[in-house]
Amino acid sequence: MITQPNAYQTDNTCMLEALKERGDYSRGVVVVTPETGEATLQHWHDLGARGARIMELTLGAVRLKDLLKVNTKIRPLDWTCIVQFNSREILDRAPLLNKIQGDYVIDHHGKFLPPVTPDSKEFDQLLRLIDKGKCYYKIAACYESSVTGGPDYQDIADLSKRIIAHAPERVIWGSNWPHVSGSPEDAPNDVQLLDTVMSWMPDEKTRQSIFVDNPNRLYWRNER
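and the corresponding structure tokens:
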């Protein structure tokens, strides 16, 4: 699964070339604007695109104000919206998120800046969104929002463990490689990071759901 980086904004060329290179073995999340045409979307779909990125943070190419317009455009193709914002604002954002048609993903552990506690009203709201049956939670880039820091990222671990215990069928994982949010010297060790994330999952069945079954259900619908 390849996600359009913010550096390229609305120009998906590089990401689409990567999808062409890898063929049917990969899927992509692109930037879709309210002006993107149906023929263009179909072309991207044929290349492997299955999601549209919405980001209400610095350098986000398409913001929450256009979420529902983008959602309407991608519904005929059964894509998902991948949404990232500071979930400290989730109580105010929930009415908008509840209007999304089809599945969507709350990205980067919810990107609570700074992290809340698992028993906070904000995190309870996230669980309520998940319980409606359309929302997924992506484990990715814990180092971007953690205050306690690595290698354990305990504040993010506490949140993720509660989600995993509550609804393992609604959790997916992303590597966030190549970790471009900081300097190369500060990038996490990928093996260590993956070991940390896997330690949050209680058994092999849960790992199978998060790493295989859930993303397969989202991005290879009716195709395998």
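(Above: one complete record from the training split.) Residues 42 and 115 are 38 Å apart (CA to CA).
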